[in-house]
Fold:
Amino acid sequence: MKNPVIFKSEIFTKFIVMLFVFLGITTISKAQFFDELSNPQVTVNINHPPGLGLKINKVAFNVATGNCSEQINDALIQDFVSSKVDVIDRANLNSILAEHNLNTSGYIDQTSAVAIGKIIGPSALITAKVLRCETKRENLTGTEEKYDYKTKQKYYVKYFIAKITILLKVSIQTVDLTTGRIFAAKVFDYTPFQENKSYEGVPEAPSEFDNQERAFKVLTSDVHKLFFAWTEPSVLYFFDDKDGGLKQAYQALKAGDIDGSFKLSVQNLETCKKTSDIKPKILAHAYYNLGMSYMIRNEYDKAIENFQEAQVLKPGKIISNTMSDCVKAKNLLIEMQKVDDKAAIEAQKIQANTESAAKAQESTTLKNADIIALAQKKLPNSLILQKIKTSNCKFDTSTEALVALTNAGVSEDVIMLMMEKK
Structure:
């Protein structure tokens, strides 16, 4: 008769073999499976650019329409204020637009957008239309299978559910008032629900207010991503092998010492490369960890180089998936740079246009020298007075300047009007 311990060991071994055969896992796949199972993970934040590709410092909110519109506008405004964006007060916006005979009820066209942009400066105009904001209440029933361990019998019980569903659908249109560009309206659709369950009659319904607040928070978060850079945590692997000192780099990273982990990863790779009997697996892990360290530092090209070296030595899902995430992060960084470059170009254009307009106005502004020249050319006083009345003026009416005007033959009537228009 077989030893029971040996017999059990044989059964366990057969079970493991059968499991891998059943799953169709090859020798390489087994190694990859255990890598994923046994190695620790770290969370890396991947930065995303604003969804609309805009970089804004000032925003105006149009009149929101539809049920719940005021609450939604208030939630969005609070988010922009918290993000340190200058939000134009609605009352001030209305008075500015009324003064220039402009109306922003509903969506606006490009001509109006450019006109508004000239008035309130570089900014974005956001219009929210609430297409649906309703509460759906349901009382549901059903049966649930139970098991009585004493009688070893199945039995069924009736349950009751009180369910609240919020049906929220909102359209957000954005206008870049700097360029007059109008973005297509983006529609956000949510149906969050909550339910209470009871086996003793219909339970109290969940709070409609709480569920609605949840929907508003999700909407605010999604709209935020259109206008602001945001981060997405990605859970990735970092090897902690004792050989090559990789465990020390992992422990430093786990403790939050990113620079220390990076320096150790550099040393680990050099040590592994110089050790003649180092296993290819450990060398691959050292390359991978250094790649991850570069990725955390946003040095994506160097990260990819090290991931590629690791992939050659020991191909696997961990490395290929992480490299894919790294390429994604690199592309997002490029998009972020495009947003920054575009914002810088627009700022330069605005500055150039402002300076050009100031020079144009300066060239058409009447000064003391212009009035003296007109007087010396013997133009009638009536013409000079009319010219002053219909022009931009910047006169010097100090005592010395008044004496100079009088000595140059400028009439008293003209000088009096110059003093009024200075």
